[in-house]
Amino acid sequence: MNSAIESMLEQYDPQNNTERENAIREIIQEIALSGLSHAGFFKKAAFYGGSCLRIFYGLNRFSEDLDFALLKSDQTFKLDDYFDTLKNEFLSFGIDINIEAKVKKTSTPVQSAFLKGNTLMLFMSFFPKSDDAKKIVSSQRIKIKLEIDTDNPAGGKTENKYRMLPSPYEVQVFDEPTLFAGKIHAILCREYKHNVKGRDYYDYLFYAGRNTAINIKYLENKLKNTGKISNDVILNLDMVKRMLEDKFKAVDYEMAKADVAPFIDDKNSLMFWKPELFISTVNKLKED
């Protein structure tokens, strides 16, 4: 096994196949970020979302996807221009990963692709001494989605972050106030059909616990972009607080807890999830 991968695995102490798979996923995510960085991807785009929070800000939950946004709207951008570089990055570490673009039925500014690898083969590479590998069905696949918004609204602020493994690389990420604004936008605008995305609410409490300020201008632009508020509205903090209070009163918290539970170790942290907990955070919100 590559020595860099061995060093990355030392950060984990997986006790079962679920934890081993999560470790493999997280290492694959970081190799992908390294490859994109070396290809110059982050001169055009910034990293955000749950995986960004986990890797660069210390969020204590597993996240499945890699989410990005262009810094300037560009409808000519093609995510698949980076596929060959990503493929070669994985091969340089002895990992066989396929990269496939997601075929869209409708035209949207969001482009998606999937990193796919055979679960059994990856387990044998990462955990060759584990007897539990024989429990894995040979047809199983580990799949990680890459997604980029090519028409992200203006107002986001970024900063550069660095990682040393699997090799030194640099990533441009949205700063915490911008990330918090994006999370509030998701809470206010995400449509729930059969389930509540509890991961949004878990992340919200993470920001609130860190006393993170909100990039109000970026939130305003995103809310206008999705039609939540009209273009003539000037968003202020009081409006954000009222909208969040209304949302927190309407959430099915049992569904929210069920959604996020598989992604966290400390299930007891969900014990007090109810409207009062979330509403108690609203008056403490501040703008950047």
Short description, anyone?
The protein is of the alpha+beta class. The protein is built from eleven helices and seven strands. It folds into two domains: 3-174, JHP933, nucleotidyltransferase-like core domain (Nuclear Transport Factor 2, Chain: A, Roll), CATH 3.10.450; 176-282, no CATH class.
Outline the structure in words:
This protein starts with a helix and ends in a 6-residue tail after the last helix. Helix 2 crosses helix 4 (83-92), helix 6 runs parallel beside helix 8 and helix 7 packs across helix 10 (253-260). Helix content is 42%, strand content 15%. It is of the alpha+beta class. The strands form two sheets. A five-stranded mixed sheet has the order 1-2-5-4-3. It has eleven helices and seven strands.
Q: Which CATH class of the largest domain is shown?
A: Alpha Beta
Rg for CA atoms: 20 Å
Secondary structure tally: strands: 7
With strands numbered from the N-terminus, the spatial order across the biggest sheet is: 1-2-5-4-3
Structural class: alpha+beta
Rough shape? globular
Number of helices: 11
Strand content: 5-15%
The total number of structural domains is 2
**Spatial gap, N to C terminus:** 45 Å
CATH topology tier name of the largest domain: Nuclear Transport Factor 2, Chain: A
Order of helices and strands: HHEHEHEEHEEEHHHHHH
Oligomer: single chain
Overall mean confidence score, pLDDT = 94
Helical content (DSSP H or I, runs of 4+): 40-55%
What secondary-structure arrangement, pairings included, does this model have?
Layout: H1 3-9, H2 17-38, E1 45-48, H3 50-57, E2 66-70, H4 83-92, E3 98-101, E4 110-118, H5 119-126, E5 141-149, E6 158-163, E7 169-174, H6 176-189, H7 198-209, H8 216-225, H9 237-250, H10 253-260, H11 275-282
Parallel strand pairs: 2-5
Antiparallel strand pairs: 1-2, 3-4, 4-5, 6-7
